[in-house]
Design a protein that fits this description.
The chain is an alpha+beta fold. The protein is built from 4 helices and 7 strands, in the order βααβββαβαββ. Helix 1 crosses helix 2. The termini are far apart.
Length: about 150
Amino acid sequence: MISIKPSTTENNDFIRKTHHLAYREMVQRQFGKWDQPQQEEFVNHDLLEDDHEIIFFGNEPCGYFSLSIIQGKIHLVNFAILPEHQSKGIGGLVIEKLKERSNKSKKPLSIGTFKTNLDAQRFYEKHELKRCGETDTHFIYEWPEKS
C-alpha cells in the first residue's frame, strides 16, 4: 500500500509543493496569514538541514517527512501528506513505521504540532503518542511516553 524512500534533490519541488498545500491552512490559523517568502525560507532551510523521505501510495508520491536527531531523540521535523491523500490511513502507517524505528534504535520519537491543529493532536493521541511539553506555538508529543 505505502512505501517510503529516501529523498533526492530531484524531489525538492515535490516537497515544496506538498509543504505549501498541506501547511497553508494551519499556518494561517496559527499566525493569521501565509507569508510565501517566509515559507519558502522554511522549506529551503529544512531541505538543507534534515533528512527527508518520500511517502508513496502505490507508485505515486503522496507526502514526505523529515527527521533529525535532537538531544538523543528522533524528531519528526515535518510531516505532510497531500490533501487528496489525507484520511486514507497513510499517515497512521507512517507513524507506526516511525515508532518501529524508535523501538529499534532505542531512541524516543518526538513530534511537535501547532497548538491550533486539533486534527493533528487527535491523530497523534490516537497513535499512542503522549503530549509531554510545549513551546509558544507547538505541543510536543513523544513515543514512548516519558517515564
